[in-house]
Amino acid sequence: MWMICKKEWQQFFSSLTGYIALFVFLLLNGLFLFVFPDTSILDFGYATLGSFFNLAPWILLFLVPTITMRSFADEYKSGSFEILKTLPLTPSQIVWGKFFGALLVIITALLPTIVYAVSIQQLSVSGGIDIGATIGSYLGLVLLGAVFTAIGICASSYTNNTVLAFIAGAFVCFLLFNGFNAISKLPAFKAGPDYYIEMLGINFHYRSISRGVVDTRDLLYFGGMVVLFLFITQRNLVKR
Q1: How many whole angstroms separate alpha carbon 10 and alpha carbon 222?
Q2: pLDDT tens digit sequence for 122-157
Q3: What is the SS3 assignment for 74?
Q4: What is the rounded distance in angstroms from the CA atom of residue 105 to the CA atom of residue 236?
Q5: What range defines the domain where residue 161 resides?
Q6: Dist. CA 159–CA 67, nearest whole Å
Q7: What is the per-residue pLDDT for 149?
Q8: How many domains in the chain?
Q9: For 227, what's the count of Cα atoms within 13 Å in the CB-facing half-sphere?
Q10: Residues 55, 62: contact at Cβ < 8 Å?
Q11: Taking the model in full, what pTM does it have?
């Protein structure tokens, strides 16, 4: 499994595309947080990273499918999937290896953003940022990235077209992140099942962890979503 993980890591950084994807992610975050006047945290008058943690999921929604779209699609297209099947690895090991390889790339993209937290803490005159909420929000981003990665890999396992894998992965990520939240706001569901419908979405559990309170139910939700999509991917590989 770790051989596949290492292969995915090396493959992503073997081309200029990988570096460009990470650069764009950090550049967009930097522009929105420190340059654009409407979202600049320097103009808030108090120490907070709320804008970053509200913005980052939307950027990850496009970044993660960019990372995962080649996971299996390229294997099918190049014919290397046939070689992959001859290795002494189970479908489960192949899928989890690709998952951890892609997730490691995402964590690598998030690590430099810790500079934002350090900078705001140093610039704060009094009080500083909420450490508990900040740690919870970073944990939420990692878990969010894990679910998006599982979805992206699952989408990539159904096609040999990387563009189609990207579109399908981004679309499903968007639906699960914001779709249930939007449905819960429909007048037909107000003062009734709206809360439970919202609970089905990723955004509900991400916001819950971002408050700094790590609830077991949120961890089980994220873990369950990852296992579900990777299980679907594994079953798809077995059929092939």
Answers
A1: 27
A2: 766 666 677 777 888 889 999 999 999 999 999 999
A3: helix
A4: 24
A5: 2-239
A6: 15
A7: 94
A8: 1
A9: 6
A10: no
A11: 0.89
